[in-house]
Amino acid sequence: MKLRSPHAEIPRHKIRNGLIAVVVIALFAAGYAFPDAYNTVSDALDKRVGITLGHLSAPTFRLGLDLRGGAYLMYDVETRGVAESERASAVEGARDVIERRVNAFGVGEPLVQTTKVRDTWRVLVELPDVHDVAAAIEQIGATPILEFRDKSGDGAVTAEQQKQIAAANKKAKDEANAAAAVLKKGATFDELFKSTGTDLGFISKEQYGQLFAWGSRVQKGAISPAIDEADAVYIAQRGDDKKDPVIKARHILICWKDAQGCATSLSKAEAEQKIKDLMLNTSAQTFADLAKVHSVEPGAAQTGGDLGEIRKGDMVAPFEAALLAMKVGEIKGPVETQFGYHIIYKSEQRDEQLIAFRALAFDKQAVADFELAGGWKSTGLSGKQLERAAVEFDPNTGEPTVNVQFNSEGKELFAQITKRNLEQQVGIFLDGELISSPVVRQPITDGRAVISGGFTLQEAKKLAERLNAGALPLPVKLVSQQTVGATLGTKSLEDSATAGLIGFALVLLFLTAFYRLPGLLASAALVAYVVVVLAVFKFIPVTLTLAGIAGFILSMGMAVDANVLVFERTREELKTGKSPQAALEEAFPRAWNSIRDSNVSSLITCAILFWFGSSIVQGFALTLAIGILASLFTAITVTRLLLRFCAPYLKDKPALFVQSKK
């Protein structure tokens, strides 16, 4: 780091501008870290003097289980017998199973993650606000269940209907092949399109997997062979392509009595005030819970306002316009539509490739066309008979597929299932959740099956991991369990806050009493340090635990070290007869090497603790490292700016400055 020469004259306007920038940063950080305090002041000003500053909205601090209350479970995963190259994916598969079981238990904001300590793989589970820990442990430790089911019931298709389906689908394929032959003989696509054509518009991979895969490999204007999709056999002409955003979002809806589809007695003004009040307390972490309680959208109590994946044209124009203008992670509201007022939280956005097609469509039939009223039933085929699932690629389309292999018992069962379910779906369930439902095209007697569905490579890998986890779950052993009651967690938080405030006050008192005006200015810089660090904790966000708060409190003490080094160096310069201003300018660059070396060595220690330590130690290391980095800014930049600003006024008042020791 290159520092300005101590003898260079610093223009006063540069010092003033620097102080203004520091004040703005500190105020912004304080508002982000403590929005409730800002909102209280804003309301008081509005009430007493009529000054309206508006309200701030910011996420709450993320608290660990030792402060919030809940259960922490650590499982060792047995990976012996699994190839080294496959262990990571196998453990991820087990993690997915555990996460689904935790979600089924109804835990709010659970955290399930994997970690590796030397040669041991572990799954760490945090269950906030859980009271029945024994039940949670029992559910997590249960063996994952993989099942193959087919359709049955009073409304199941008859043998005659199955024949109709097979005949209709054969006719569609024959007609498509005949049309392809006509095209080969010289007929134009436009001629056939006039009679049997349909404009599919822009389609995605999820809508028409086979057609999209073909279109991805050819140029505009190309004519496809007959392509078999679920609803029809297509001969298509490729058109333009484009990318459209696919957005994941949640919303809270508050309607008024005249809004479309609304059943409430609220007036429009009352609904607007209610949505504004909700906006004040809304954050990314609390959004789903607030939606469950307050949103009037049907099903919001179960979904938390989740809208799933949203594409252009899915939502009404005002809602879509607001959503497209938002940044990921942003919360916006109120947004008015004909249905009421909305608060929108945009959680994700990705670009989706779309391709336009005109097609000759030859319609097929399916079981759904006969309004099947029955449900899924067990076939007796489960993960017990599954040997392995692996990702492979279709040799014709290059599309990722998932291939499964059964043992001898499963081979026989699967042959029976596929024979009786021709042109029907077979459901693949993991832990009672339907994860795939392929259509059986022909009997399968070799004990192998191919699951295709327009998967991306990532989706195919994840499905294979889930199938392997269900078929051959890795043994897990509970090795650590910690439970913190909500009352104890609250007390821990209060005690930690009290300790932090006492330590902070003592540091400020020491600085001011021992170093006088420079100590007072350093105390102001330390206040800026605290609000900046807390804002960073919210922004990342950092999960605050007792160990993490200890690291933060320790970093407050370390933040003073740089000031002490500078002030002691200033004392030495004052002994030589220099003025306070000259001593100050000489002290900062001379003290920098010691400040740099001490902080770098501390950061190295933090890196070692974070890399090799457990989650509790990692929290301590992270908060300490953030504090050290922030302290360099406040000690070197903020304190020096304040001292440079005040130094010219100290020429005739040496008693206010750091005096040399006698």
UniProtKB/TrEMBL annotation:
An individual GO BP term: protein transport by the Sec complex
Residue span, PpiC domain: 244-348
Chain segments annotated as transmembrane: 497-515, 520-540, 546-567, 600-617, 623-643
Places the protein is found: Cell membrane
Protein's membrane topology: Multi-pass membrane protein
Listed GO MF terms: peptidyl-prolyl cis-trans isomerase activity; protein-transporting ATPase activity
PROSITE patterns, A to Z: PPIC_PPIASE_2
Alphabetized UniProt keyword annotations: Cell membrane, Isomerase, Membrane, Protein transport, Rotamase, Translocation, Transmembrane, Transmembrane helix, Transport
GO CC terms of this entry: plasma membrane
InterPro entries from the UniProt entry: PPIase_dom_sf, PPIase_PpiC, SecD, SecD/SecF_arch_bac, SecD_1st, SecD_SecF_C, SecD_SecF_C_bact, SecDF_P1_head
Quaternary structure, from the entry: Forms a complex with SecF. Part of the essential Sec protein translocation apparatus which comprises SecA, SecYEG and auxiliary proteins SecDF. Other proteins may also be involved.
Described function: Part of the Sec protein translocase complex. Interacts with the SecYEG preprotein conducting channel. SecDF uses the proton motive force (PMF) to complete protein translocation after the ATP-dependent function of SecA.
Family (UniProt): Belongs to the SecD/SecF family. SecD subfamily.
Entries under HAMAP family matching the protein: SecD_B
Protein name: Protein translocase subunit SecD
Organism for this UniProt entry: Candidatus Magasanikbacteria bacterium RIFCSPHIGHO2_01_FULL_50_8
